[in-house]
Amino acid sequence: MIAVVVKNVVLEAHSVVRIVLGREDNERLPTFEAGAHIEIHLSSGLVRQYSLCRLQADDRYYEIAVLKDPESRGGSRQVHALKIGDRLSISEPRNHFPLVSLKRKSLLIAGGIGVTPLLPMAQTLAQSGADFEFHYCSKSPDHAAFSSALEVGSFADKMHFHYSQVSSSGRMDVRETLSENLVDVELYVCGPANFITAVLEEAKTLGWPEIRLHREFFSAPAQETTATENTEFTVKIFSTGEAFLVGEDQTISQVLDENGVFLPVSCEEGVCGTCMTQVVDGIPDHRDVFLTDKEHQEGKLVMACCSRSKTKTLTLDL
Ligand code: FES
User: Fold this and answer.
1) Which is it for the CA torsion 53, 56, 61, 66, positive or negative?
2) Considering the chain, what percentage of its residues have pLDDT values greater than 90?
3) Domain for residue 264, yes or no?
4) 113 near 66, Cβ under 8 Å?
5) What range(s) does the 2Fe-2S ferredoxin-type domain occupy (predicted)?
6) In this structure, what DSSP letter does residue 246 have?
């Protein structure tokens, strides 16, 4: 864990604040690669993950941009209440959403606050002279964090702004953009869950290979599955042989916690990857959006905060 202080708070766009974090003594922070995030431990005990983004590279500071979410379970509201001088603990940067190739063209598609991991990606791609397009969808320039800087920045010629509430701009034609980039392009998409899902579905329909599709969810898409469709099963700990019943209305991570088995969790909705656990035996019933379709099919990993079991027993490598 790293102890940091809030160095600055800037209203970046409508309902979006940019928080600048640094060590009290202004010593350098660990480096990070485009797409990385940090965990922020808020004073209430909540732990939230935010992508690292900054317009100017200064290794003394991390910056995050956070949308005040009306559906917030408290995280974004507490971040919006932070003031200069507040003290926080953060994790070292981790990256589940890296750039996979600088040789192939990259297609970056951001929906609203989904711009945050894609901004450093665009900076990295521009610095290395790689081919890319950056599509930024938002309601209006006032809602689009970093838009004024991106309009005049060093890769302004790569930017495509799609403002749904600006008649001269309008919504992005996702199908057309994906069709034009079908061959040998890496797609990176981030934004609201339904936005990501719609872009990925369109890409799959057009025949984009799964291996070229990269996404980072900030929240889980609305699930059609209801608690009444859950069935109970047993979760077994491989190292000790202990077995616990997971009731219809419980999660694996809750049951493990109640029985003193430590498993780190953060988002608790299958988005962040913190609770990822290896499966030794049994077939998981995946409910997360973190793993890829291929990983879901392989069934070797499970997100214990939300996923369940198709078999009567699920043995985990714990
Ligand atoms: Fe985030 Fe499980 S805690 S995916």
Assistant:
1) negative
2) 77
3) yes
4) yes
5) 231-318
6) E
